[in-house]
Structure to design on (452 residues):
């Protein structure tokens, strides 16, 4: 596996920006990627404003990808395949691509509290079908509230189920530990993303019914963790 | 909706027996149902041993159903349709049937940490397709550890996502409150059982990877509840 900054593609969106803020606050090197350089640069500026001394750059998606060890895909589900096809040539063996997309039915104009079916089984498995050989795909971060990520003063209070091959999975579990209140949970094989992604739709429904604009999270009880 | 005891069909199994113990400990009237009267009577005897003064009867499934207000289906997924067809004539409008089955792949000889697809979308929706008109179907209790239910000395520490029509759903949320540590969560429409049922497969995988024989549970953070 490769070293280098954490690239966050779609890092100008709410959830991507939240992760960028948190990883920068933990002292990590972050490359915010966007389709347009200007938006990426503006998002990096925003991060530096909130996290003085942040090591963050705003780059076009391909350039952010090329220098990263871990590439987090934080784009709406319907842009997943297009984004991957655009950066495919910039990915290299040993890199980890983190899928955090969820096939919410809002992608086809229906409600975000429902899912659409993905032929490959999940967004993460779609991503795995599109990356070059030797690139590891890990599923994580789907259920973390953007609002809570961006609110740096408070811990996030959410478990992150991380699934994929063993070693890349362990590395992404390590990234979770950088964010106060976030706990990485060993989610086993990548296909479990089918379940984890659907939990997001459930949480969106709960947010609506309980009127929790900050976002409801999930914790697993009885997990023997440090 | 109807009053009467809580019937637990398949109440001789681990999870059904656990619920029977807990509801009896809370002073509720319980009818344990089984395909064979002898096994139901033995399970009721076991409950009375652990909960002195328990109001519990052991009955054949149909007889347990006929007198109940709420009928909890606690049979392995592969016996769901068969059990329902056998008791269909004993169900009456106003009763609530609670589906707690999960279409685990173990039903077809594969692993319990994976799911099989159900044409109707979920076990709960299969149940809804099989009950007579006027019988309400609610999905609940899938993710509650049998071991923790049976260990009466400790609270269960698990949220129960309850989905289905509004009024029956509220009634089942009320049942959750009878069990220390169990919290009923408003899970919206019945189709959300698709997500909630699959969480069971995820928890089974977590139990294996983390070697937690008592069973890992789930909690939602940030839910504004009493």
């Amino acid at each position: 596996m490769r070293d280098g900054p954490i690239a966050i593609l779609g890092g100008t969106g709410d959830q991507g920006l939240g992760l960028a803020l948190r990883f920068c606050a933990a002292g990590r090197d972050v490359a915010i990627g966007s389709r347009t350089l200007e938006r990426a640069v503006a998002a990096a500026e925003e991060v530096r404003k909130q996290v003085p001394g942040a090591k963050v750059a705003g780059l076009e998606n391909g350039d952010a990808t090329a220098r990263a060890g871990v590439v987090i895909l934080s784009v709406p589900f319907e842009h997943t395949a297009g984004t991957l096809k655009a950066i495919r040539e910039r990915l290299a063996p040993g890199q980890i691509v983190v899928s955090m997309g969820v096939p919410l039915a809002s992608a086809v104009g229906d409600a975000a509290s429902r899912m659409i079916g993905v032929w490959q089984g999940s967004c993460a498995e779609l991503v795995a079908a599109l990356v070059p050989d030797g690139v590891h795909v890990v599923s994580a971060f789907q259920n973390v509230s953007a609002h809570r990520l961006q609110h740096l003063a408070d811990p996030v209070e959410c478990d992150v189920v991380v699934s994929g091959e063993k070693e890349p999975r362990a590395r992404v579990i390590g990234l979770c530990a950088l964010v106060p209140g976030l706990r990485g949970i060993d989610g086993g094989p990548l296909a479990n993303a089918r379940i984890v992604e659907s939990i997001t739709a459930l949480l969106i429904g709960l947010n609506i019914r309980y009127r929790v604009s900050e976002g409801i999270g999930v914790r697993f009880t009885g997990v023997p963790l440090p």
Summary: The beta strands of chain B are 6-9, 30-34, 56-60, 70-73, 96-99, 136-139, 158-164, 182-186, 217-221.
